[in-house]
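Predicting holo structure, D-mannose bound.
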Amino acid sequence: MIESWRWFGPLDRIALTEIAQTGARGIVTALHEIPYGEVWPREAIAARRAQIAAAPGGLHWAVVESLPVHEDIKRGAGDLARLFANYRQSLANLAAEGVRIVCYNFMPVLDWTRTRLDAPLPGGGSALRFSAVEMAAFELFMLEREGAAEDYPPALREAAKAWIDTAGAEGRTRLLDTIMAGLPGAFARYDVAGLREALRPWQGFTADDLRATLVRFLAEIVPAAEDLGIRLCIHPDDPPRPLMGLPRIVSTADDIAFLLAAADSPANGLTLCSGSLGAHPDNDVVAIARRFGPRIHFAHLRNVKKEADGSFQEAAHLEGDTDMAALVSVLLEEEKRRAEAGRADREIPFRPDHGHELLSDIGRGTHPGYPLIGRLRGLAELRGVIAGLRAA
Ligand code: DNO
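Done. Tokens:
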């Protein structure tokens, strides 16, 4: 397991010199400044790679998270030939610089979505939270999305009405800002009118339509990735359920089986995000890791505690609903099999995903979910689990 750490590049308030002190050695990053759909120039990749390598502690650029897939590709509309060619060129440039694990997602319009960035913890500090009630309130009473009522059961609609009635202008603004905070790569934010505009072209777009555009993307990109020795790894939906009428198709074990079979190549793999998958009531994350082990190229390790109405809150890494020690043990077994098979990709990079805001994290203004101390706690706990399992 390669201990890794997400760094948002020069704009990140956490410096490489701080990351070096966590003990992690792999850097997970992206050229966030390049607009979606444009080529990542080799020189820019080389410069970022050199910047990472120049930091103390022997850091290296281990994983790209993400090489974003343009919305037009997801929707199957527009100048797709150019977009596919650009994506392949970016992969070629990354491979030329020796960066070969590439994460991406296929969630239309939104990336990860929460309703609260600072849910208080009993001992102090705060966590990210997704409230099904607040999400329903947003869709029904702020976005006023047509058809939203059909997506929520009566009890949730009533709770949402009660929430909005007391939220006030401040509560509404906080909710909008929070929902928008999940676009870490793009740094794009919409207001309600802008969001309606962004959603409009997706009206009537079904899960099958999205599956078809994903299959096309894989057909266009995976052969090139294979030639380059690139291992693509799709990130699951977060949360693993449709939002705002948009389909999501990487939420369950069946979804993963479909997409891996759609291009049966090691170049077409999975980012095992235990927090995203773990928020779905039907998902057994440990079983998913076991089933798709050989195609896992990257792991995001974190935990969530689910609630009966579909809400969830991010738990400490070893708490929450997923048995983290069992999950890590599956990944270690997978690595052992790879070593026996002589696979070059024997070690799986993982990063402590998200973290509580703790101690000096508070007020530092780091990316939501990506504080220094909270993630360091997660990394240290995971490191302990790994060491314990290896010694057993
Ligand atoms: C959230 C992240 C996601 C992830 C993208 C990958 O914390 O895990 O934003 O980077 O979905 O494309």
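Residues 116-190 form one domain.
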